[in-house]
Amino acid sequence: MNKANLSLILVVFAMTVSCQRIDRTKPPQTKDLPAFKLPSTFETTLPNGLRVVLVEDRRFPLVTLRLVFEGGSKYDPKDLPGLAQATASLLTEGTANRPSKQIAEELAEIGGALQAAAGPDGLTLQGNVLAENLPRLLELLADVTLNASFPPDEVQLYKKRRTQELIAERSEAAFWADEKINAIVFGPHPYGRLNPTPESIARLDRDRLTQFRDSRLVPNNAVLILLGALPPREETLKLVRTRFDGWSKKDLPQPPAPEFPAPARQIVLIDRPGSVQADIRVGHIAVDRSHPDYFPLLVANTILGGGASSRMFMNIREKQGFAYDAHSSLQPRKTAGLFAAVTQVRNEVLEPAIKAVEEELQRLIREPVPAEELNDTKNYLSGNFVMGLETQNGLANQLATVKLMGLPDSYLETFTARVRAVTPAEIQAVAAKYFSPEAASLVVVGDSSKIQATLEKFGKVTVEKAQ
Predict the structure, then answer these.
(1) Could you report the per-residue pLDDT of 87-106, keeping only the tens digit for each?
(2) Is 311 contained in some domain?
(3) Are residues 107 and 169 in the same domain?
(4) How far apart are alpha carbons 433 and 285 in whole angstroms?
(5) How far is Cα 103 from Cα 95, in angstroms, rounded to an integer?
(6) pTM, whole model, 2 decimals?
């Protein structure tokens, strides 16, 4: 027998043995992911209070940055919702040294990006650039942060654009549903105000924008994160000091008190004449990421409505055919959070759809989650989390969240272990606290003439207009 024939026989034999050993009726076992390990990190604080975090990542010749302030919409004056959002949008639209066009041209010249956005808690400048051009990006970052001038023509352009965007947003039922569930759950706290109003946009001016910048965009309220192929540490710190040492610290206004209404059953119908479907939100106040209930609640929310294999999706969409979309969300803030179950259904199936949502909420309270479903959910959460940290942007975003929310430095490295430690009993306990329909608010947006009588089967209904 020649060597070629012998090799062929051995290959066939190996394949036969291999096939015999694999039970293809069972899915392969998913091994636990290793815990995330943060790359080499250094943190220091400059004399003016600016915290600087340096993270080494030399896989690519790139640097990603975040400059994070606790300066989100919770600091908007009551008469001017949308101020933080407007300030962020206009930071890069002109400074005392550079008009908007020059900023854009310099960014294009160095192959960089720089933009800003504001959320409920924070205002963040984010950017990236080839490592060799980091000094120039830092120069632009310092200029827009310290010297944004809010040119009148740019402010007027923003006001026109934002007004048109708001008109489009207010034409959607989901806008009104989200607005109302936040207003009910968070009450008079600024977390309850998601968007500007036409009146607040009209009141925007350069003075109010400058006041917000000068009160919140200060070094002792900021964290600068630089991540990527950085120069040697002392050289990097010198680049930062050269541009930010002249930035003076200031006393900071106190954040609004974290006072929220006690959860209670409310049913609110937002009347939107002519709607052929109803947008549903079942909402309850939740917790921040540092609360002991957060990880059990995160797992419970994922089981309930966190993806295409979640219970709400499989029941309300796949089995019942009530809706195209059925999901739930957990939105942690710095001092609280929002849980909401969400779906949109045809008017004629509103009653069974609400019952189906509430039954899924009750089932998590009533029955322990089966081991296989719980393990699959933990794998899903852990895998998504670890994959999200593979890119510079993903890791920079997570580091910014850790610093903004005041979480421990170990948060990212212990995330998967804390997810895997959640037990069925803990899920039932948090479901009883945060999912109970008897203590949740029910918001429905739709045509009151067609659905009010149906809603009244669930309790007293307050009707409001979508204006």
Answers:
(1) 999 999 999 999 999 999 99
(2) yes
(3) yes
(4) 10
(5) 9
(6) 0.91
